[in-house]
């Protein structure tokens, strides 16, 4: 049987234990490191938008790298940008190529052919070529005005007949027109194989000459060629004929 003294000692010790617990206060929340040490679940990952803020954008890095490579390659390939350049002696020849892809000779030549044509089929083809050339001029001017990319620093502003938007570089109007005319001619003129090859080579030479003369960067020309190629599909879709545009064809009826 326990003695009265031992029972009194146990009763006297309980308040001391309770007072120690009360001094410790409420248990502090576990830290993430303590939860990991105790085998708890890992903290949830950051939202995707937070990761995008913390880490550089892959698309941004890719575009910056592409721009740097584009500028470097364009400067290295601008071998005819001036008379003192590596291939400066070929500059006059490339300027002739430049004129061959300019919009004014094509517009004047198409308009003259339209006035002189006696065939309804020829007038239909020429009228749609004129429509394609005008559409090309408007589209390129709009894109240049929106993008406003300056021309390469090594370019000499001695171009053949320029307007206000021609101070911008993207896209290359010559490359756009060359691809458009090339596809148009191959689809609507019956040419021998050597002549068809020459038409394709002309379009490619016009595009390459824009970089060699220092007029454009490489991406300006590549996008211009793609844009001109796609623009022909728009012309085919909106093809003008005496059935859907009789008023236009009545103007050219002799």
Automatic annotation (TrEMBL):
GO molecular-function terms, A-Z: sphingosine-1-phosphate phosphatase activity
Reactions this protein catalyses = (2E,6E)-farnesyl phosphate + H2O = (2E,6E)-farnesol + phosphate; 1,2-dihexadecanoyl-sn-glycero-3-phosphate + H2O = 1,2-dihexadecanoyl-sn-glycerol + phosphate; (2E,6E)-farnesyl diphosphate + H2O = (2E,6E)-farnesyl phosphate + phosphate + H(+); (2E,6E,10E)-geranylgeranyl diphosphate + H2O = (2E,6E,10E)-geranylgeranyl phosphate + phosphate + H(+)
List every stretch annotated Disordered. Answer: 1-49
- Mark the transmembrane ranges: 126-147, 184-209, 221-240
Q: Name one GO biological process term.
A: lipid metabolic process
Q: Which segments show compositional bias classed as Basic and acidic residues?
A: 1-14
User: Could you tell me the membrane topology recorded for this protein?
Assistant: Multi-pass membrane protein
Residue ranges occupied by any Phosphatidic acid phosphatase type 2/haloperoxidase domain in the UniProt entry: 125-236
What EC identifiers does the entry list?
Answer: 3.6.1.68
Q: Which Gene3D superfamilies match?
A: Phosphatidic acid phosphatase type 2/haloperoxidase
Its localization reads:
Endoplasmic reticulum membrane; Nucleus inner membrane
- Name of the featured protein: Polyisoprenoid diphosphate/phosphate phosphohydrolase PLPP6
The organism's lineage? Eukaryota, Metazoa, Chordata, Craniata, Vertebrata
């Amino acid at each position: 049987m326990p003695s009265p003294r031992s029972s009194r000692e146990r009763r006297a010790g309980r308040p001391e234990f309770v007072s120690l617990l009360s001094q410790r206060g409420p248990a502090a929340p576990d830290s993430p490191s303590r939860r990991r040490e105790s085998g708890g679940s890992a903290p949830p990952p950051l939202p995707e938008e937070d990761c995008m803020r913390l880490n550089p954008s892959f698309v941004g890095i890719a575009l910056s790298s592409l721009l740097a490579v584009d500028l470097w390659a364009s400067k290295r390939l601008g071998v005819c940008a001036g008379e003192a350049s590596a291939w400066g002696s070929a500059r006059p020849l490339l300027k002739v190529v430049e004129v061959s892809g300019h919009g004014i000779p094509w517009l004047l030549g198409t308009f003259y052919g339209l006035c002189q044509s006696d065939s309804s089929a020829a007038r239909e083809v020429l009228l749609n070529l004129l429509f394609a050339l005008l559409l090309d001029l408007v589209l390129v001017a709009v894109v240049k005005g929106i993008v406003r990319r300056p021309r390469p620093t090594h370019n000499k502003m001695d171009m053949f007949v320029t307007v206000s938007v021609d101070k911008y570089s993207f896209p290359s109007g010559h490359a756009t027109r060359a691809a458009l005319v090339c596809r148009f001619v191959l689809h609507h003129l019956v040419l021998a194989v050597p002549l068809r090859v020459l038409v394709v080579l002309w379009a490619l030479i016009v595009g390459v000459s824009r970089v060699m003369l220092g007029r454009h960067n490489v991406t300006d020309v590549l996008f211009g060629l793609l844009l001109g190629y796609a623009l022909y599909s728009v012309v085919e879709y909106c093809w003008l004929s005496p059935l859907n545009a009789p008023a236009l064809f009545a103007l050219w009826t002799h």
